[in-house]
């Protein structure tokens, strides 16, 4: 009896592993030596809490890599993307970054998708002197540590920062919507949300608006009716909810069901196809978000990218995919200007990025390694993002 | 403290020396050092939880809470206040032990599921305290912590944890703890102060959990409240249960296997959790008591006339 049990166990494990080994090994590009390729290590959230962001970003990166390679590569060398999963955990992100540098010997690091995981990799890049470009980490301190007043020499980003987003939406509320009263409803467990709330508040108040209440919720909350009832009695013109799509979708749905018709606004954390499913199409009317780009943009560069992305993945790219795509081109551009894969030269070239033409607009990096670029304000109409206005920095 | 004990220590030190030589000779690169540190941290966590869950039989799922206290207190000491790492480490351990004491008295009158829920709640309270405290960075946590932990720190940390816990278990106090696990009423009838031993188990367990927290905080550059949610507590619990409740060697082997498994599945993210979970399920079906549950490894090394109360230790 014992023997047969053991036998079953062994066979089960063996079949499982062989079956998985077959499906599992999907490396991007060939693993040749560094001589004729430029290796980019992508430290991304492919599983765990924000897997949707990392996966989408990797799609953008891969598309850019294929395009660059089919156009002859950079300096006669092909790009190769090595991706590794950090499971949306901080300590794993440190290890993933180290693995990409020491085991895979990458020339440039990309990632992570969210600020917390990026923080964990910043010191690895600094210590190993490998340039790192995060496509979408928006926390102000990633590239420039404000507490220590020190620039992270090897760290760059391709997106605008948190404080800019809050400012854009506060200006939009005061100038375009002519709002006088606003309620702030923050995700208290998210630093991103708190950052956006802070910059919105200071800008909105400096424009003469009034914040009538500041409420908060926690990630993974599902019932927001108690707070929304209180907000309803205050009758604000704008409700600022700078959270992530999961909770925001429920907040919008419950608010509309309770008869709150005020404009609800948020940042790029709203931008995921799941938002429409959670909130419902008609509930999203009269909501506005700031974002990195819009799929409605008639610019031929944007159209070309969207067509290519749709052809490959059969879905409309979200902001994460676009930023991954742009960041890959930024790296390619820097390597081309550096003329070699020397880490120091790539770092210098990245820091000197000027008027780089990306899908998300013209990108120039300032002295803090942060891009100076425009943000777009989008309005949801029947579940579709429509372009409302573009805000220059 | 017999001959066997010192042989165990000697073997461990040789192991330490070999690895240190490999690191100094740059044969082991940073990725392997990362993995070794991660292994060490997990072993300390699992072995200390095993004292509470495995030997004393108190079902605690708030271990990540103790770990976070060690991590935060040590990081505040070194990063915010500028003290040295050894002092920060000590304060972190002590703070966690005090938390173990505070949580111990009111909740240890609870049993089984009720205790589990109380410890779960405790872990979450600690996390929420960090989350809403701007002095420690709120949701973003503390970043820019200097990397101090290295192979030597982690090795001697593991050694101290294993030796201390193993010696407690083999002592009178350990026997008392095991009797509490087996039958509280019988233990009390024999004159054992049940609450006292439960509190001791919690304090010692929390002390080492704090140590693991301090080591990991000073290796991975930053800490955030999300790293210490109840999923982390479960992760530690899984190490212990898979390795074998009440077996130090089993716990260590279980931890090493699962940590390495998780590391090497990094390249196939689509299947990572599937394989990981499947191995857990299969182990629990075919080895319900864990890999080394109810097996005393030291038995294999003992021959006929070995001393009966030998404080044998296992190499980490």
From TrEMBL, chain B:
Origin species: Tumebacillus flagellatus
Cellular localisation: Cell membrane
Record's keyword terms, sorted: Cell membrane, Membrane, Transmembrane, Transmembrane helix
InterPro entries: ABC_transp_permease (IPR001851), LivM-like (IPR043428)
One cellular component term from this protein's GO annotations in UniProt: plasma membrane
A Pfam family: BPD_transp_2
Source organism, top-level taxon: Bacteria
Topology relative to the membrane: Multi-pass membrane protein
GO MF: branched-chain amino acid transmembrane transporter activity
Membrane-spanning segments: 31-52, 59-77, 83-105, 112-131, 151-169, 199-224, 236-262, 274-292
Main location group: membrane
Protein's name in the database: ABC transporter
């Amino acid at each position: 009896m014992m023997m047969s049990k053991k036998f079953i166990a062994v066979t089960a494990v063996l079949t499982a592993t062989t079956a998985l080994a077959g499906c599992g090994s999907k490396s991007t590009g060939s693993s040749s030596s560094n001589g004729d390729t430029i290796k980019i290590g992508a430290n991304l959230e492919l599983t765990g809490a924000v897997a949707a962001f990392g996966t989408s970003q990797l799609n953008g990166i891969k598309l850019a890599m294929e395009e660059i390679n089919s156009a002859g590569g950079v300096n006669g060398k092909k790009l190769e993307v090595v991706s590794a999963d950090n499971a949306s955990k901080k300590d794993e992100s440190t290890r993933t970054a180290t693995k990409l540098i020491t085991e895979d010997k990458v020339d440039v690091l990309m990632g992570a998708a969210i600020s917390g995981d990026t923080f964990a990799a910043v010191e690895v890049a600094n210590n190993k002197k490998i340039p790192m470009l995060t496509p979408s980490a928006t926390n102000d301190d990633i590239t420039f540590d404000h507490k220590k007043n020190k620039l992270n020499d090897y760290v760059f980003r391709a997106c605008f920062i948190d404080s800019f987003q809050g400012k854009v939406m506060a200006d939009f509320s005061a100038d375009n919507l002519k709002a006088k009263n606003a309620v702030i409803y923050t995700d208290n467990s998210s630093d991103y949300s708190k950052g956006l709330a802070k910059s919105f508040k200071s800008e909105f108040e400096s424009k003469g608006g009034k914040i009538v209440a500041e409420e908060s919720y926690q990630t993974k909350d599902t019932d927001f009716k108690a707070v929304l009832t209180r907000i309803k009695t205050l009758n604000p013109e704008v409700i600022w909810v700078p959270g992530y799509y999961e909770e925001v979708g429920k907040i919008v749905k419950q608010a509309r069901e309770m008869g709150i018709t005020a404009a609800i606004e948020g940042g790029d954390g709203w931008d995921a196809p799941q938002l429409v499913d959670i909130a419902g199409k008609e509930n999203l009317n009269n909501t506005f978000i700031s974002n990195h780009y819009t799929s409605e943009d008639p610019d031929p560069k944007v159209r070309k990218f969207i067509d290519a992305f749709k052809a490959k993945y059969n879905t409309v790219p979200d902001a994460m995919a676009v930023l991954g795509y742009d960041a890959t081109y930024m790296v390619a551009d820097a390597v081309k200007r550096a003329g070699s894969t020397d880490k120091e030269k790539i770092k210098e070239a990245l820091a000197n990025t000027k008027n780089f033409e990306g899908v998300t607009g013209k990108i120039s990096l300032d002295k803090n390694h942060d891009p100076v670029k425009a943000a777009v304000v989008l309005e949801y109409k029947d579940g579709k993002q429509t372009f409302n206005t573009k805000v220059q920095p | 403290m017999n001959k066997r004990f010192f042989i165990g220590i000697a073997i461990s030190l040789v192991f330490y020396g070999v690895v240190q030589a490999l690191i100094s000779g740059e044969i082991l690169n940073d990725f392997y050092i990362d993995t070794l540190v991660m292994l060490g941290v997990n072993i300390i966590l699992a072995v200390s939880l095993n004292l509470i869950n495995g030997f004393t039989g108190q079902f605690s799922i708030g271990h990540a809470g103790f770990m976070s206290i060690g991590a935060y207190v040590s990081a505040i000491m070194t990063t915010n206040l500028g003290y040295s790492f050894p002092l920060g480490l000590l304060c972190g351990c002590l703070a966690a032990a005090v938390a173990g004491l505070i949580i111990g008295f009111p909740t240890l009158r609870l049993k089984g599921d009720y205790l589990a829920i109380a410890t779960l709640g405790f872990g979450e309270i600690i996390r929420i305290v960090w989350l809403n405290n701007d002095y420690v960075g709120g949701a973003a946590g503390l970043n820019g912590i200097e990397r101090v932990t290295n192979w030597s720190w982690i090795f001697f940390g593991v050694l101290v944890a294993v030796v201390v816990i193993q010696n407690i278990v083999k002592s009178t106090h350990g026997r008392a703890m095991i009797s509490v696990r087996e039958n509280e009423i019988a233990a009390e009838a024999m004159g054992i102060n049940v609450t006292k031993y439960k509190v001791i188990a919690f304090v010692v367990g929390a002390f080492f959990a704090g140590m693991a927290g301090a080591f990991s905080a000073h290796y991975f550059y930053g800490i955030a409240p999300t790293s210490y949610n109840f999923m982390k507590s479960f992760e530690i619990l899984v190490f212990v249960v898979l390795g074998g409740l009440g077996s130090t060697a089993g716990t260590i082997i279980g931890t090493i296997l699962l940590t390495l498994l998780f590391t090497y599945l990094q390249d196939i993210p689509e299947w990572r959790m599937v394989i990981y979970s499947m191995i857990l399920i299969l182990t629990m079906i075919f080895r319900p008591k864990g890999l080394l549950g109810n097996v005393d490894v030291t038995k294999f090394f003992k021959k006929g006339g070995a001393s009966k109360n030998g404080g044998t230790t296992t190499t980490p």
